[in-house]
């Protein structure tokens, strides 16, 4: 009899534990991955600019209403200015299909450098162009760039760095595919001229 009471007690504890509270939703708000470009798209990107970055975002929550894409400029781990900022409103219809974000850098011409940010949804696209005067910058001997290679999750209010472009006179350059901490950001921007691209959902 005592054994039966113990078994029943354990059973009740398990049931109560299972019923207490609602299960947590662990699915991320969105997932970002490097875009898989067709041969034609890849050729067009090369024509559009010297350095290009393309990412696709799958949004899993109807609470997302805005997308912010930014390009920031660093020198020796110190942020100097925001080169470009693109804010796009999203409808519930927009987020049902993947959203593509493209960052394009065009080579300087007569000390003028151009950055283009394009956000493409099922309803259309939004493009931001920013021209920089780089006449006061030293010309660097090498350029390296890269970004995320595996899908990463993104929740509302979080900023995700998706790509960096480094111009330096140093003999070697390390490009971090994933930047999640301030320490990693400091390391990734520890060069003479660095551009950092990021995406934020609101």
What does this entry look like structurally?
The model is unreliable at 1-24 (pLDDT under 50). The longest helix has 18 residues, at 2-19. 23% of the residues are buried. The chain has helices at residues 2-19, 39-48, 182-188, and strands spanning 30-34, 51-59, 66-75, 78-89, 99-109, 112-121, 124-133, 142-147, 152-154, 159-168, 193-201. The protein has three helices and eleven strands, in the order αβαβββββββββαβ. A six-stranded antiparallel β-sheet has the order 7-6-5-2-1-9, with helices on one face. A hairpin with a 2-residue loop joins strand 5 (99-109) and strand 6. The protein starts with a helix and ends with a strand. The protein is of the alpha+beta class and 202 residues long. It has one domain.
Strand order of the largest sheet: 7-6-5-2-1-9
From the alpha carbons, calculate the radius of gyration and give it in angstroms.
Answer: 23 Å
User: So how many helices?
Assistant: 3
Task: Spell out the helices and strands N to C.
Answer: HEHEEEEEEEEEHE
